[in-house]
Amino acid sequence: MRIVTLSENTAARMGLLAEWGISILVEVDGLKILLDTGASNSVVYNAPLLGVDLSAIDKIVLSHGHSDHTGGLREILLSRGGKKIEVVAHPDIWVPKFWVSPQARRLEEGSYNYVGMPYQREELEDLGASFNLTREPVWITDDIVVAGEIPMTTAYEKIESGLYIKEDGEFHPDPLFDDRAIFIKTDKGLIIILGCCHRGIINTLQYAQELTEMKDIHAVFGGAHLVTASQERLKITIDELKKFDIKKLGCSHCTGMLASVRLSQEFGDKFFFNNAGTITEI
Q1: Which CATH number among 2.40.128.20, 3.60.15.10, 1.10.287.3510, 3.30.40.10 corresponds to the domain 2-276?
Q2: Which secondary structure element, helix H or strand E, spans residue 165, and what is its range?
Q3: For the whole prediction, is pTM greater than 0.85?
Q4: Domain ranges of the chain
């Protein structure tokens, strides 16, 4: 298995483009699966520098509908010259999504920012996207599964305040039902590729164990969404993560720098910053 991070907030070396967002390519069992597409053109820019041929990708998975995970999709499709590709996602990627600044006292005109999918479905389909939209898990092979809706079972993991959807002209807190990840069964244990973990990293890992019927988790890559976590939540999360006995923990994007430093201190050489340009072979 080869895992190539094509886009992330920071770059592992000079010459690569970094932007707020994430995109991770997984090459396993003869398949090339791309989780998320970054925010704009970083994936298309970085791919040839990292020896990645985007026209050879077999599937694209969108972890959720925020623009920092979907904004690069149009550029990727254009780079493929109209070649058809399945895009696995939750139906809610098309729900209008907004973020309200903590400084905003109330939700009113001008206090919110649109952060949802930046393109129309018809345009992306014309460029080669074939959307497989489902709330259920999608088994790509017997060993590779895209998560369905992740249950929120822990008491301390909450969806970040300030995230809203707009339906029938009304704003409502976004339940982020579309938040998902990829789970891969291997002889070493599960390999888990995260997008943003809005519904909680512990909830996600526990769900992975349940869905795959595998207990051991070998490696976790991607965003853990601890950037806004309180010190109390961070401590509990670290204590719970240790129980999984993860061998590789490659954090990115919305994990946040302060939380990443804490994770580095707690997990030692098991931890690494999974930046744009990071390549891991397992």
Answers
A1: 3.60.15.10
A2: strand 163-167
A3: yes
A4: 2-276
